[in-house]
Specification:
Chain lengths: 109, 115
């Protein structure tokens, strides 16, 4: 079967760096997405990786290793507003999105 | 208005009621989706419409009935629901279905409680 694994919950300190990991086993691969979802709000697109390596977008970076079936989302200079759930999703060979259960990130002052 | 708008934001219904969820997108997208989001579970894809034609129905019980009258509007009609159907129902749209960088734009969801 197809599976996406990510930690259920993480805690970090304001101003620090946190890395949220995502591992996947899917039938084929057509890209990996990260979405952010604040409580009671819509998930919003953060990043898309289809080739190996690191993509940087301001304070957020996303890394992909296709050979290892592994990605991470790196958040730097954490702010209180970064408290949210982070959803990892992989597009398989049929262009179907396979979702992880999300990682709830708690930022403490 | 811009983006994807869902109404109502909250809905409480009994098991014998009939209600509908509405979704509207102002992005000119061709594909629209219904997802179910339950606590600590992955998003579950329910239905996909492309250019008003249903292209996917993921074994969803018949008590959920989608309708897509045009490419901007999507409805989810609900009847004789069960308590386990209580969840957040998310609508999303994208430029097309399939394709690599198929970014979804989500609405804020309709929180459904079935008593």
């Amino acid at each position: 079967g197809q599976n996406i694994d990510q930690p259920t919950e993480m805690t970090a300190t304001e101003g620090a760096i946190v890395q949220i990991n995502c591992t996947y086993q899917t039938s084929g691969f057509n890209g990996l997405f990260w979405y952010q979802q604040h409580a009671g709000e819509a998930p919003t697109f953060l990043s898309y990786n289809v080739l190996d390596g690191l993509e940087e977008k301001g304070r957020f970076s996303s890394f992909l290793s296709r050979s290892k079936g592994y990605s991470y989302l790196l958040l730097k200079e954490l702010q209180m507003k970064d408290s949210a759930s982070y959803l990892c999703a992989v597009m398989d060979s049929n262009y179907q999105l396979i979702w992880g259960a999300g990682t709830k990130l708690i930022i403490k002052p | 208005e811009t983006g994807v708008t869902q109404t109502p934001r909250h809905l409480v219904m009994g098991m014998t009621n009939k209600k509908s969820l509405k979704c509207e997108q102002h992005l000119g997208h061709n594909a629209m989706y219904w997802y179910k989001q339950s606590a600590k579970k992955p998003l579950e894809l329910m239905f996909v419409y492309s250019l008003e034609e249903r292209v996917e129905n993921n074994s969803v019980p018949s008590r959920f009935s989608p309708e897509c009258p045009n490419s901007s509007h999507l409805f989810l009609h609900l009847h004789t629901l069960q308590p386990e159907d209580s969840a957040l129902y998310l609508c999303a749209s994208s430029q097309e279905t399939g394709g690599g960088a198929n970014v979804l734009t989500f609405g804020a969801g309709s929180r459904l409680t079935v008593l």
